[in-house]
Amino acid sequence: MHRSGWRVALLALCFAVFARTAPLRAQDASQAPLAEPAAAEPTAAEATAAEATAAEATAAEATAAASEGLVAGAEEWRAGRRAAAEQHWRAALDRGPSGAVRGALYYNLGNAAWHRDRALEAVGWYSMALPLAPREPDLLDNLDLARREAGLAPRDRGDLASTFERYLTTWTEAEARWLALLGLLPLAVALLGEALRGGAGWRMTALATLLIAVLAALPLWHHERRDGRDLGLVVAPTGARLAAEPGALAPGASAQGPLAEAGSEVERIDSLPDWVRVRTESGQRGWIPAPEFFALRR
Asked: Which range of residues forms the domain containing residue 127?
């Protein structure tokens, strides 16, 4: 945009901000006051704030109760009562905790699955904990061990694609939001400099900072993309055959059907009590038995 165009845009932005923040005009003094003060009904903003406060209180209570279950399960685990510990952790997870407590429950349930010789299920639990604690050494080691035991390829294959994936997944969602915001700051400075000063130097700076902003926003995009999909893990040791209809997997009936490989991520697009319709990464669709699908969103 021409330098004068940038100035016009900045002036328009300033006017818009001023218009939104200008004080309201006082009421006409000649207007007669009400004989009795009317009961003030809550505005939409106040109602929304009240609902948000109530939701935060409920979430805090759920997290506190789940934390107690986390500790109780740990005590059972140390006493050698692993089944009782897992019951405590599952009950705590059903309370809907958030943050570190949820991540710790995922991690502990992964350990419980590992000790029951269910490596693929352990991979699922560890994978759910990863976005909440992406740099936790014990979690990363256990996930790699479970993947190796399940016969899956390592997460980090040492190539460029693995390096890029590691960059996307090394941030929590909150950290990714801050990273995206910080990436916008140099871009804003460069655009302001190009608008006020112009010149090839400022244009090149704006292009460079645009690239930085895009790279900084990619981890947040990765979180948003995964959060918007109902993903699951195929936990059948030999993979899951995709059936055209639920119940069509009679012995030998679909031996030639597409195979969702063990440990692969699939997206749930429909479900019945005993069946789940999934879409594989290659786009194939079909029904698999519900026990062969490990939901990665709970």
From this structure: 57-155
